[in-house]
Amino acid sequence: MSKETKNKMSVKMITQAGMLGAIAVVLMLFEIPLPFAPAFYEIDFSEVPVLVGAFAMGPLAGLLIEFVKILLNLLINGTTTAGVGEIANFLIGISFCLPASLIYRKMHSKKGAIVGLASGTLIMTAAGCFLNAYVLLPAYAKAFEMPIDALVGMGTAVNAKITDLFTFVVFAVAPFNLLKGVLVSLVVVLIYKKISPILKYGRV
């Protein structure tokens, strides 16, 4: 492959990553509240274009799309969480799309896609639980100068099973990420084959 061809492919990949990142930002605006979790846990479908891009163009493209999504959202909408929410979204997003796309790259079939999405969902759930318990919720509490118990109290208000940080993670964070992973995966499986021919040019 010539250097000129590689350069053209790189430009096309960056352009498509920017486009998919922009679509993801729009999808972030449509959030679905959940009855079992505090209001700051809302499901959106912004990971759909990230996964579509990662499947079509490779894991590195997925990482770039996730970064573009977060950056554009910060530039357009700013932050209401002192940056904690955006960091959480990025870290948990890549814990979903990277394993899923790596598995799909090795098993390039519908079965591989399903295995990848299922694995990504489980890894995202585990990562979400760990990061929320030990990094994100403590960081959020520190940023807003409030005790962890106040965040737990927000959970208790909507779900009586939430009584401490552990039950917050078990009954709010884990089901939130599992449900998001399943819903996003279903959409990706339904639309990927129709969209992927537009994006494919080689993988990175």
Round the mean pLDDT to the nearest integer and report it: 87
What share of residues is helical?
over 70%
Strand coverage percent: under 5%
Report the biggest beta sheet as strand number plus sense, adding barrel if it closes: 2 strands, antiparallel
Helix count? Answer: 7
Please report the total strand number as a whole number.
Answer: 2
* Regions with little confidence, pLDDT below 50 for 5+ residues: none
Radius of gyration: 18 Å
Structural class: mainly alpha
Gap from first CA to last CA: 14 Å
Question: From N to C, what is the helix and strand string?
Answer: HEEHHHHHH
Large-scale geometry: globular
Going across the major beta sheet, what is the strand order?
1-2
What does this structure look like?
With about 200 residues, the chain is mainly α. Helix content is about 80%, strand content about 0%. It has seven helices and two strands; from the N terminus they run H-E-E-H-H-H-H-H-H. The protein has a two-stranded antiparallel sheet with strand order 1-2. Strand 1 and strand 2 (about 40-45) form a beta hairpin. Helix 5 (about 110-145) crosses helix 7 (about 165-200). The model has no long low-confidence stretch (mean pLDDT about 85).
Name its key features.
204 residues, mainly alpha, 7 helices
Structure in a nutshell:
The chain is mostly helical and 204 residues long. Helix content is 78%, strand content 2%. A two-stranded antiparallel sheet has the order 1-2.
